[in-house]
Hints:
The structure holds 2 protein chains of 2 kinds.
Chain A: H1 2-8, H2 10-24, H3 29-64, H4 66-73, H5 75-80, H6 85-96, H7 98-112, H8 117-128, H9 132-142, H10 151-174
Helix pairs in contact in A: 3-9, 4-6, 6-7, 6-8, 7-8, 8-10
Chain B: H1 2-19, H2 23-61, H3 63-70, H4 72-78, H5 87-101, H6 104-119, H7 130-140, H8 149-156, H9 166-189
Helix pairs in contact in B: 2-6, 3-5, 5-6, 7-9
Amino acid sequence: MDLIGLSSCLVPVTALIFLIYGIYKRVNVYEAFLEGAKEGLQCVVRLLPALVGLFTAVSVLRAGGILDDLGNLLSPLTQWLSIPSEIFSLSLIRLISSSAATSLLCDIFTQYGPDSFAGRCGSVLLCSTESIFYVSSVYLLSVGITKSRHTIPAALFATICGIISAIVLVRLAFGQ
Amino acid sequence: MLQILWAAFLLLGAVGGLLRGQAQAVSDAFLDGGKEALEMAFTMAGAMAMWSGVLKIGEKAGLMDALAKRLRPILTFLFPSVPENHPARGYIAANFAANILGLGWAATPAGLLAMESLQTLNKDRTIASNAICMFLVINLSSIQLVSITIPALRSQYGSAAPTEILSLALISTLISTFAGVFAAWLAEKRWKKWI
């Protein structure tokens, strides 16, 4: 696992570059670090109400089971396109929660295996998309923007392109 | 848009749960949401404080400005309204770099600083400016070049080739980011009056 070994170096190497460059430029590194850390913590505290709102909405939505209904409702369409219905559910959940999407991907791996069409598709999909609802809420609420204009439509368009390209690419590369 | 989505999530969840006779599950979900949020904040606080500290060292040493200078053509194309030498450029560059490398916890503090900095250029602080929309769309389209968590998960579940999807993921990521930038650019140019 060269890649994973390499990526474990990323955090310490990045921190080291910043630290050495700071010392080289005669920055008071410890004071700067504390100042930044204080701002970071204040930031988390400021985000707390938004996080509570977000997590409540997402967990209520998932508990209500509407997402499963939607998946079942559209299953004729996904069948016609010969896309596993799990990929559709995964795309929906991906929009609202990263952790829920990851656990659904694990379910797909258990059921079909990571090297199945659904497993590969789901893997590419999670790599190339972002949980729009969560990230946009955090960023917008942190600075008090209420009108996001074309942000959500454009981001949704990007995500849909990501989902379609994931399915098409896996089909092109591995068949099925 | 977000307020509508938020309210819709709660309504759909509550109504759907009650109709299916799963009032208890919905009730638990209402109470669990806050707990999950606080647990998330707890996990996030340490990493975010650490990265904010490291970023501050870089900022004081001029590392971010250097990065922004390197990325000048791209930043000028994406954010024509942000003047050169404005600190927002440095934060945006740091956020992009952290995202591309997959340092999620470092991307968030840099991103929030970028948002605050972009707000100083914004005329109406409650409405997202073109630069803010573009910055968010790029973040929301995922720009991480190589994922580590997904291959690790695949090998954990016994994949014969955990990393074989990475090249496809890279192409797919590029497609979604270009699509997002194009859509945001088009919305800026064409639909100025509508949205």
